Amino acid sequence: MSVVLDELDKKILHEICSGIHSYDDLAKTLSVTRGTVYRRIEKLEKTKVIKKKIMAIPNFKALNLSSIIIGMEIAYDDTEKVTEALKQLPHIKLLWKCYGAYNLIAVLNCEKGCEGETITNLRQLLSKLRISSVNVSVGFGWEKVEISPY
Question: pLDDT for 103-112, tens place per residue?
Fold first, then answer.
């Protein structure tokens, strides 16, 4: 089921995806009442367009962390099994089913200097899951992180 959003819903979604805002701040920015913002956000939650969570974008360099991006080509019949296994790993931060050169992309974090060990451990796990087509890249800087769909 697809949810239809009007322009105000899209603007609210864009604003709340870009950072933490109070209802008053959102109302002022969008030139509507606080009550309107409250009702619209309630609707977005009820229709499962958003989950109410507070999120921050950490500074990976300051935290001495590296991100590892892994592209995997998985047999169609194994996709769910592999996805469920990877969901259980706490250092996996994003799993994305997709089309293209790979049908599953994973992003995980590790301490700088531990990238080789982390990749080796993940390759061993993927081998047990019968995944052999894997491409790995180690990220060294997030240049843009924006999760708003609008």
Answer: 999 999 999 9
